[in-house]
Queue: 2 jobs
Job 1
Amino acid sequence: MSQLEFLPFTKPTLDEETIQSVANVLRSGWITSGPKVQEFEAALSEHFGGRPVRVANSATAALEIGLRLMGIGPGDEVITTPLTWVATVNVILKVGATPVLVDIDPATRNIDLDLLEKAITPNTRALLPVDLAGLPVDRRRLYEIAGAHNLRVLEDAAQSQGATSHGERIGTKGDLCSVSFHPNKNITSIEGGALVMNTLDEAREFEKWRLQGVERLPDGTMDVTLPGGKCNLTDVAAAVGLGQLKRIVEFNTKRTRLAHRYFDRLNRDLGLELPVWSDDSNWHMFQPLLPLERMKFGRGEFIAKMKDKGIGVGVHYPALHLFTLFRAMGYSEGQYPVAERVGASTVSLPLFPGMSPEDVDRVCEALEQVMKEALA
Ligand SMILES: *Cc1c(COP(=O)(O)O)cnc(C)c1O
């Protein structure tokens, strides 16, 4: 065991061709937003069925701009999940709107669409669903609800690029859709994100929010029409993204095979609650829940013991309403019991395209040893 390399819970796969393309950008004399960004946006647009796509230096920025494009601000309610990366909710606060949290479905661990519908009020303006671990929220049902209540949808597909719902790739249909290229996501541009939009007018508006509100005029001068940010992507990052986008189907296929192997090899007597199997998922993460009430030690010790055996384990995510920021806003324990239970017991096991099937077996073996100790 000690001879084996440490297996992290995730790691990006970057090929030599991509590394070479980065070197070419660095030598080109133009390293910030330029031709590579345009090429990346065109390739993303093709990936998303020809819809307009613009990139930013993070998905957080893309989500915030998405809310701004919808005109969402103070007094508006946006419904989302408490079991997500906190960026999802931070951007709602950032534009001055009110996040309305709704508990999750214990099977999918995504927002419970029945509860979502009940949480709609006259102030609700938008729905912000998250496809946790790469398993999409049911788009058909989601858009039925949005349509019936005349609501906009901003899909946080940071984790679900390349996944499908009812046979259609996420982002190719629907309203606004945001994806992330953080190194832990299924494809990366080091840091980066993108927003898939409906019209070129929205895309032009996105460009303004992305860079200081600047609008280039035909006569070579400029105007500024809104207080935009500084969230443009560099050509260096875009070159990485282009190299990655070419391989997204291959990467997701590898992830799916590895997830299959986890389902095959994991000892079901260890008391772990496995995620639901779905062919719709891009298997961004593989997350069993620990049977904490039966264990002699907690999640922290479990993670430390796995680390001792050379296996990296992550936590994605604790239920966010229990963070100090949200407690200060009045949230408390017991409000979202399903998200709290999942958030307290979830662990992310290693899953990334560079892993071998034998790596999965290694994780399963370590799990078996650690869990037998925990349940003894
Ligand atoms: C990663 C992630 C984000 C933010 O992406 P960045 O590119 O890091 O800003 C937002 N929402 C979810 C669900 C994520 O997983």
Job 2
Amino acid sequence: MVKEAIKKLKPYIPEKTIAEIKQEQGLTKLVRLSANENAWGTSPKVAQAILDWGVKGANRYPDSEVTGLRQTIATGLNVSPEALVFGDGLDEIIQLLSRTLLSPGDEVILTQPTFSEYALHAEIEGAKMVDVPVDSNGVTNLDGMLAAITPATSMVWLCNPNNPTGTYVTHQAIAEFMAKVPQSVTVIVDEAYIDFVTAEKQASVVDLLTKFNNLVVLRTFSKAYGLANFRVGFAVVAPQLAKILQTVRLPYNLSTFAEIAAEAAYSDQQFVQTVVETVADERQKWLAFFKKLGVLYYPSQANFVFFKINNADALSQELLHQGYLVRTGLGPDWLRITVGQPTDNQIVQQLIWKFADKQ
Ligand SMILES: *Cc1c(COP(=O)(O)O)cnc(C)c1O
């Protein structure tokens, strides 16, 4: 018998492959600006590391503890190696946390809108979703989330910067929030886009883990590090919870390829820095563009911008015909566009301008 909770489930709709869409649309070129991937690729050090490793040990199971990468990241983030739990992308970590911490009837507090996978996995566990809408600037409403906490609350998801709004809350705001949240509630801060924050030097709340046992911080190699295809994400958690998560997760969830690629990517902070600076420049141009266009948009600190425009579906179709894929389906007349290479951004801005002019 299929679980009741699963019968009602709306599936996560993954990206189609670029080749598939090109064929469907008869396009020779397609630029995907719908998945918040890194338009600058990944560090050349990754290719070298993979070539050096070759297929040595392909017949052997990988290191279940991911010892090399664990040490590298523990040193980089100044946390204990035991505080890290690795996953097959953050996707797996989101599933793992839900599977481990949620029981049927538990309440899960979410920003509305936010990343859909939090609700997906909460639903599978039979938990109850409590949505707290963003404020008029698209910013996560921390006071609203605090007010939504009840004795049944099990976890709070804080995506920071938030996907799809791109907005972020400060380190200080999260510290004050944590001080008011009961110990029994786990607060998960998904920092998938934290590298792109330029408004504040120390935006990550990893340092707060020494103060709050009920805090979990998530990071991924899929965005600023440009490794989406290798599937590497991790949680930084209190050691007691780390131990429990380690027993629930699959034993060989990261291939050696993934580990080696992530280590090489992490060792090239110069690459990340360049990407982050270029994204910040281009993001600024996007925000200025939307301001000039006179449409509603949110002040992004991530590598994408969320905006509202009349006939958004028709616009997304028009852009697709011109070889640009943007994200639809996140809200009526809202579109999310990933910051791309400068020439692509310019072309798409011209197309949007022309489209809006004809309306
Ligand atoms: C992209 C994304 C993830 C998923 O990251 P993977 O490591 O590729 O699974 C997690 N959280 C948010 C908010 C994202 O946008």
